[in-house]
Amino acid sequence: MSAPDGRVVVSTDLLLEGRHFRRDWSGGYDVGRKAAAQNLSDVAAMGATPTSLVVGLGIPADLPLDWLDALTDGIRDECAAVGASVAGGDVTRCDLVVLGVTAMGDLGGRRPVKRSGAAPGQVVAVAGRLGYSAAGWALLEAGVPADSPALREAVAGHRRPCPPYAMGPLAAELGATAMLDVSDGLLQDLGHVAEASGVRIELDPTRFAVAEPVAAAAKELGTDPLEWVLAGGEDHAFAAVFPAGVRLPEAWRVVGRVCEGEGVAVDGWEPRQRGWDHFR
Amino acid sequence: MSAPDGRVVVSTDLLLEGRHFRRDWSGGYDVGRKAAAQNLSDVAAMGATPTSLVVGLGIPADLPLDWLDALTDGIRDECAAVGASVAGGDVTRCDLVVLGVTAMGDLGGRRPVKRSGAAPGQVVAVAGRLGYSAAGWALLEAGVPADSPALREAVAGHRRPCPPYAMGPLAAELGATAMLDVSDGLLQDLGHVAEASGVRIELDPTRFAVAEPVAAAAKELGTDPLEWVLAGGEDHAFAAVFPAGVRLPEAWRVVGRVCEGEGVAVDGWEPRQRGWDHFR
User: What structural domains does chain A harbor?
Assistant: First the structure.
């Protein structure tokens, strides 16, 4: 692997069958794309360009070879989509499918954007999808047939995220003071920014456009779509803090501001659930 | 993480409770040291100096906190022993303890030493321990009490390898044409070198000094210690191929030579077992 500028960022995650994916809900190809995406997006959300990825793979003896082939195809294709390559791996036998994925990225001479740089007076913006994965998961969990294009897109969004990779290095160049990818839910992840930066973040719920697939799923299930947008995880949208007055490209939507204080508040909205608990 | 020279090597492994370690045989601290060591040694055996490590950790809800603390202490201490640092990690719940460990290293301007550079006429040398882990495992498996210093050292060698880290970059500087760390057993791992290089490797069994702990365990169990030396895995000794006539420091012992042909042969010795099968 090459690291021309001498600064590398790295991200690692463990994905477990039954906890992070179900083989009856997701094919090998989708699992591969999702496994790669969640680490590549973490690297990009530090402002780096993903360069390579390694995978430690645990597989049951009776895993169909087709599923394994599809998995590795999915990993490779997600890497290729961002110009990264699969640099190696390790295979071992396990009772369930386990993936240990590590992605690396090149900062191109910049400092990594961390969670700790937000300051009062700055603005909070998001890029990418919010609520798709939670909506799709809710449809699958409820056993509701995805019989419209919108519902199918929500389910597809659960199976495979679509991180706004290019927005990471771009935000770094635009002067982002803090950034992360939304893996556990916007409120919970912005809570990490608030805590690391010693600030309070206030979000304006009217600034969030609820996408059609999320709205359609909420209507189908009779629930509040904003809950999925604000607290749903695994879409790997990017959330960043920028200096006030920054001119942002359309892909970044300003949704809140940074104040003195602590925690994350949404004006006039009370969440029932604050994101995904790693230990549920 | 810093990569001053612009070339980075990376190694990843998945360690599973029950397959790669047993909590009744190894404490958290030993598991941590071993998990870190097996990836740090892989990096060093490419000729690089290990710089950093990331860990994806799956833990059961009822895992004692002391065990987890000891595990992270072990990982940190093994890294510190080679001047590397723990750069981050990820924790998730799992029914068994799973570690996905990825280590990175800096090549200091050199090319990585791969498995494919061996050529006829060159010599094969090893550095570090061979047979300790297999001997210790056999003692534990047989339930033989480790009631002498030699037997205790064999068991300790199973719980925690002692890779000759510094020998990796040194071998690279001395012109090693192929190198790896012995994770699956010397014969099996040299088989990878023979295959990747398109050569035959012939070992002289009289060149191997059987260490006292390995000899003592073999005597206790009435078995051939050379089997553990040649086919036992997990000691993370380094095996390398050097140009003929190279002057090697004492830590490297010449044990064979590279010829035309294929495969690995041991003069006058027939192994019952060719190393550890990943899929046993």
Answer: 8-106 (3.30.1330.10), 123-266 (3.90.650.10)
